[in-house]
Design goal:
5-stranded mixed β-barrel, 2 domains, 6-stranded antiparallel β-sheet, about 450 residues, about 25% helix, about 35% strand, PmbA/TldD fold, alpha+beta
Length: about 450
């Protein structure tokens, strides 16, 4: 596997060849990854998977025309071929008034921030298998667990590099360790399933494997014998592992490409109070060991922490170079790019800051409500904000968890939901999107 310096050198060679082939401007991104995972079920080895991939993508510009192409052939002959093909494709492409590299005067410079994204130690396959077995053993030991969908552990090492023809060159390495389990409780028609998982840049970022297994088993058992919910309006409390999806919908609506297409429910709402004044949502691309940390964006611009929501208001859009030109604004360092296609837009490590109430205090005044621990389906309209998703979780009665509930739908509109959102104080920072327990009053429940 090549290291960051070698990936950077490959990108530089490809950009140079593209310029010689007739490109007015070009950039190249290389991604190489090697991963290994082990899955077990009922104490037996079920699957061992080892994968390695290396790909480099080239984007070229001929005036306002552009084309992208990628290859896994890193040879000189392979590079020469894709440069010729990319330039020929660009000459035939339609003109795009917003096409082009990021502004040269905004490019990241100096050394990349030290984000500690790579774990020096690489586990042996036997150690990965031992973790998977340990997870499942702990899960199956939970009283009430009757079967296993399996447990797994894995490790990935990756390298990413980006070079542009107008002066940017950067690369970084990263790793990730993963643990997961899915367990079954009950028998026959009463069976319930649940899971738990954890991903971290360093092995030391993860909890003990047995804690993941125990959590998966306990979650499955807690869902036994669910009761139907009545239909009507009631408070909905989102467990942190599903509450992040609300923030994900917000990020999609803040995407500059959606704003430029006028297909966002946040259009023309920058001056509105969308959340309570105390709600603050932050993007932290430079967080050490963050799952989405990155020293530069997909176009070579520097990244920096930013409040996405401050005093209850959205602070602006997430922009790459193309959407910024279309909207007459400056790019924000949120370009995201793989080896194929033009840059998209993505936030990094995002979190909702903790509130002042504990989860118990947050639900203490709820006479009848529901805690959602799982969401099903994709019933969200990004243009209108209309929200409707299948769910399961736990009934709340008289300020306390009363028992499991399933087969119901929660519905509302994201604008109204954001305005009614109250975060608890139990924020934990180990996901890509981290949120505390969050309460949203006035949602509509469709039960039985």
């Amino acid at each position: 596997m090549i290291d960051a310096a070698q990936a950077q050198d490959s990108c530089a060679r490809l950009v140079e060849l593209a310029s010689k082939a007739g490109a007015d401007a070009a950039d190249a991104v290389a991604v190489e990854a090697a991963s290994e995972s082990v899955s077990v079920r009922l104490g037996d080895l079920e699957d061992v998977e080892r994968s390695e991939s290396a790909e480099i993508g080239l984007r070229v510009f001929i005036g306002q025309r552009s084309a992208t192409i990628s290859t896994s052939d890193f040879s000189d002959a392979g590079f020469a071929e894709i440069c010729e093909r990319a330039v020929a494709m660009a000459r035939l492409a339609p003109e795009d008034p917003y096409a082009g590299l990021a502004p040269e005067d905004m490019l990241a410079s100096g050394g990349a921030a030290e984000l500690d994204l790579a774990d020096d130690a690489e586990p042996e396959p036997a150690a990965i298998k031992a973790r998977a077995l340990e997870i499942e053993e702990a899960a199956r030991a939970v009283p009430g667990v009757t079967n296993s969908n399996g447990a797994s552990a894995g490790f990935t090492r990756a390298t990413r590099a980006l070079v542009t023809s107008h002066g940017f060159s950067g690369a970084y390495d990263s790793t990730s360790h993963s643990l997961s389990a899915s367990m079954i409780a009950g028998e026959g028609e009463t069976m319930q399933r649940d899971y738990d998982y954890r991903v971290g840049r360093h092995l030391s970022d993860l909890p003990p494997p047995e804690s993941i297994g125990k959590s998966a088993g306990e979650r499955a058992v807690a869902r036994l014998n669910p009761e139907p919910l009545p239909s009507g309006a009631m408070p909905v409390v989102f467990d942190p592992r599903v509450g992040g999806s609300l923030v994900d919908h917000l990020l999609g609506a803040m995407n500059g490409m959606a704003i430029a297409r006028r297909s966002s429910f946040l259009l023309d709402r920058l001056e509105e109070d969308l959340f309570a004044p105390s709600v603050r949502i932050v993007d932290e691309p430079l967080r050490p060991r963050g799952l989405r940390s990155r020293p530069f964006d997909g176009e070579g611009l520097p990244t920096a922490s930013r409040a996405l929501v401050e005093n209850g208001r959205v602070t602006g859009w997430l922009l790459n170079a193309a959407s910024a030109r279309q909207l007459g604004l400056s790019p924000t360092g949120h370009a995201a790019r793989g080896t194929g296609g033009s840059p998209g837009i993505s936030a990094s490590n995002v979190h909702v800051e903790a509130g002042v109430l504990s989860p118990a205090e947050l639900i203490a005044d709820i006479e009848d409500g529901v805690l959602v621990s799982e969401l099903i389906g994709q019933g969200v309209n990004g243009t209108t904000g209309d929200y409707s998703r299948g769910a399961s979780g736990f009934r709340i009665r008289d300020g306390a968890i009363a028992g499991p509930a399933s087969d119901f739908t929660i519905a509302g509109n994201l604008i109204d939901m954001f305005r009614a959102l109250t975060p608890a104080n139990d924020l934990a920072m180990y996901r890509a999107i981290n949120v505390p327990t969050m309460r949203v009053d006035g949602m509509t429940i469709a039960g039985k």
